[in-house]
Specification:
single chain; alpha/beta; Alpha-Beta Plaits; TIM Barrel; 2 domains; 8-stranded mixed β-barrel; 38% helix; Cyclic-di-GMP_PDE-like
């Protein structure tokens, strides 16, 4: 079964008009130039038709009488549709696979390389860098998060092939996966085709603080585990009651959010949070990893307390090639 959410096809929209007479006028106007469908109290249109409707609304309507939505998403005023139109460049990025992965080392307490996190880097058609916040913001606006997350996962798996004698941490956004059996099949198949040992891949839940459907996340993680992969929780310590989340999901790795890492050696509140999460990680058998380490002082404090793995600029920035060793 192919994943329709991951294909970059023309967007379809539902339009609701707050007036029967105005709806008749709009249907008559649009149907002369575009294929449209009427269903219940809505009009189904493609993107060119919505662009025409947007222009019509801004030119002729003073009141907020028309709302629209990408099918399955939230209703919005027609006057916000320009955000969807202006983000259409994301479709090109995904279709043309304008992405590479960079490697950032994850080290042990004695500064041996344990793994690399594979971080997506995007480019426009001229080869200039597009920052992740721009990419993911545009993807959310145009409902392309499924397709973008899939592209990132598959690219990371390909780049993981270059890693030897270490693990690869690969990010994924749980809200971009509606069915693990369907959405993740291509990821696991690619790893198998490339001959990558499943026990070397660690799938990392990003936006852990935004998890609101724990049962859905459990299904995803169960799928990964059944396929022989490990998983990690990212940014632990923010938002959601992460202590409960750790116990419920029992990840192989727990990554302490950099908010509690940077300056932890001299900040009592950060120390309290770090030790609380460290205690829970040890209780459930999760390997504690501190991310965002930038100073030897913080590194030494975390190491002394019992953190086992470390990541941050102190040991290496994301790079096009995996570094072979870390300066001691």
């Amino acid at each position: 079964m192919s994943c329709l959410n991951c294909s970059i096809k023309g967007l379809r929209f539902e339009v609701n008009v707050n007036s029967i007479e105005l709806e008749k006028t709009i249907v008559s106007y649009l149907s002369k130039h575009h294929p449209i469908t009427q269903r219940d109290n809505t009009i189904i249109v493609n993107e060119p038709a919505l662009r025409d409707l947007y222009d019509f609304s801004t030119d002729h309507l003073s009141d907020d009488m028309i709302s629209y939505r990408i099918i399955g998403e939230q209703w919005q005023s027609i006057y916000t549709a320009d955000e969807v139109f202006s983000a259409d460049w994301i479709d090109t990025v995904i279709q043309n696979k304008q992405i590479i992965s960079h490697y950032q080392p994850i080290i042990t307490a004695d500064k041996q390389i344990y793994a690399y996190e594979l971080l997506a880097r995007f480019m426009d058609e001229e080869g200039k860098v597009i920052y992740p916040n721009e990419i993911f913001s545009a993807a959310r606006i145009r409902d392309r998060l499924y397709a973008l997350d899939r592209l990132c996962r598959l690219t990371a798996v390909k780049y993981a092939k270059k890693i030897t004698n270490a693990k690869a941490f690969i990010n994924f956004i749980p809200t971009s996966i509606y069915s693990p059996e369907h959405c993740l099949k291509s990821t696991t198949m690619l790893a198998d085709q490339l001959g990558i040992e499943t026990n070397t891949l660690v799938f990392e839940v990003v936006e852990t603080d935004k998890v609101d459907d724990v049962n859905h996340l459990k299904r995803i993680l169960t799928y990964y585990k059944e396929k022989g992969f490990s998983y990690a929780l990212d940014d632990v310590g923010e938002g959601y009651n992460t202590i409960d989340l750790l116990e419920e999901l029992t990840p192989a790795y727990m990554k302490l959010d950099m908010k509690y890492v940077q300056g932890v050696a001299s900040d009592g509140e950060k120390q309290k949070k770090a030790l609380q999460l460290l205690s829970k990680a040890k209780e459930i058998g999760s390997i504690p990893l501190a991310e965002g380490v930038e100073t030897e002082t913080d590194f030494n404090w975390l190491k002394t307390q019992g953190f086992e793995l470390f990541q941050g600029y102190l040991f290496g920035k994301p790079a096009k090639e995996p570094v072979m060793s870390i300066s001691k």
